[in-house]
Amino acid sequence: MARSFRRKSSSGDDASEAHGVDPAGDAEGSVESGSRASRRKPEKAPERGPGAWLKEIATIVVIALVLSFLIKTFLFRAFFIPSGSMEETLEIDDRIFVNQLVPQPFDLQRGDIVVFQDAAGWLPPQEELQLSWLKEALIFIGLAPDQSQQHLVKRVIGLPGDAVTCCDAEGRITVNGEPLDEPYLFPGANPSDLPFDVVVPEGSVWVMGDHRNASADSRANQDKPGEGFVDIDDIEGRAAVIAWPLNRIGFLGNHPDVFDGVPDAAGS
């Protein structure tokens, strides 16, 4: 049990000190001094004018804009979904955030949903969108999703060295000989109506949309530069979150269970 110790006063003087009375002077003088002190009015803090408040608000806004730009440049970037090639995982007009730490410094995984630049010309020529200066500024600093028509979003099916084939006797796509059961496919869609048999070259990936009947993906672009493969250097990042609309907010997974049984590529 804790015990407290108190030093005993050895004299009246000590007792006076303990009660805050100056033993060298009289008590009346001390009380009088205290009364004078108590009558002093507290000093008022200097009033802040509207200019000070405006300066503070402006500083906060600038810091927020700089942070938003840094996040958009190095961490997360917003994109707008214009088509149904990834239904029902992604719907038209969804807004997504893309993790730009993939593929570097973190590695790509089979099943990742990625946004990439259309460096090989998969998309038909389109007129450049005419955006207001405000919209362009918001996109630049990361407060609005990128609505440019030169990006695509697909799911990674094959990594470098993988042998990807359509299809086995049950109509399933195989990766390194392992058939895939793909729960993310659009309801009623076949894994692929277009046969193919490819080996993914180093530095590239094989991608497909979840709505296979409405996706012009790697299968449909084997006659283009790159032969349907997407250069990893053209990948902006991995789609991580649906941010809009509110009723669809959620994280985007890569369905690791679908690819768990896939063996490593030959020679890897």
UniProtKB/TrEMBL annotation:
InterPro entries: LexA/Signal_pep-like_sf (IPR036286), Pept_S26A_signal_pept_1 (IPR000223), Pept_S26A_signal_pept_1_CS (IPR019758), Peptidase_S26 (IPR019533)
The keyword DNA-binding appears for this protein: no
E.C. numbers: 3.4.21.89
All copies of domain Peptidase S26, residue ranges: 55-244
Membrane topology of the entry: Single-pass type II membrane protein
Gene Ontology CC annotations of this record: plasma membrane
Annotated stretches, region: Disordered: 1-48
Transmembrane residue ranges: 57-80
GO MF assignments: serine-type endopeptidase activity; signal peptidase activity
Reactions it catalyzes: Cleavage of hydrophobic, N-terminal signal or leader sequences from secreted and periplasmic proteins
Catalytic machinery residues: S85, K154
First-listed, main subcellular location of the protein, grouped into a coarse class: membrane
Subcellular location: Cell membrane; Membrane
UniProtKB keywords: Hydrolase, Membrane, Protease, Transmembrane, Transmembrane helix
GO biological process, one term: signal peptide processing
Keyword Cell membrane attached: no
Family: Belongs to the peptidase S26 family.
Protein name: Signal peptidase I
